[in-house]
Amino acid sequence: MMAPWTISASDVTAFLGGYLIVLFVALSVAVGIFYLAELVEEHTRLTIQITKYAIGATPALHAVLLIVDRLPLVTMLVSVTAQGTYFRLLKSNFPFVSSLSEPVLTSLCAFATSQYCWYGTFTTRWADAPVDFSIGFMIVVSWLVPLTLLISVSSADAVLPHGAPSAAPSGSQRRGVVLQVLDAGRNFFKAKAKRALPQTMHQRLD
Predict the structure, then answer these.
(1) I need a labelling partner for 103 at 20 to 30 A (CA). Which of 8, 127, 140, 193 fits?
(2) What residues contact 134, with CB distance under 8 A and at least 6 apart?
(3) pLDDT tens readout for residues 168-200
(4) What SS3 class is residue 29?
(5) Per its record, what are the GO molecular function terms (predicted)?
(6) What is the DSSP string of 43-112?
(7) CA distance linking residue 170 with residue 201, whole number of Å
(8) Any idea where the domains of the chain sit in the sequence?
(9) What is the pLDDT of residue 166?
């Protein structure tokens, strides 16, 4: 009869180290996304051009996967169609788009459908594939362009209704959606830190 498993000090230490690693990775990803969003905001035209090239290269990659690896034709067609909706989104005054506009909603539906098809492909063909293989494959084939669009997009809902339709917002309205979310989180934690820390340390936070 096997002895019941007991929690030792080594187990607690290992669990604590694992959670710290997850925390550090999450913080590193957040900092990396913030840096990329800042970089994209400074070079919007170059980002859009690179995104167009990435979308254009996607059908060729899917053709290789279809011919060489014989992946399902339906999944390939749905995935390529999703890339076409992303290209259509780029043509609609991007990066200043309305969250309820038809190109945005179409792109979201196409992305969800594409992920559903890819999930079915993975469960039938690569059910035992490691996590790093699945993530690496999906980043290149399906996630790269949507992530770039998400980092690049800026909300056009704050634009004055009497302004020119093609005019870009100025000042804080030019801030990307991802940067606005990250700025809000940073300001929230900064406010919490100011309440918890002594008055003499507030200047360092500012």
Answers:
(1) 140
(2) 122, 126
(3) 444 444 556 555 665 666 666 666 656 665 665
(4) helix
(5) COPII receptor activity
(6) THHHHHHHHHHHHHHHHHHHHHHHHHS---HHHHHHHHHHHHHHHHHHTTTTTEE-TTSHHHHHHHHHHH
(7) 33
(8) 13-205
(9) 43
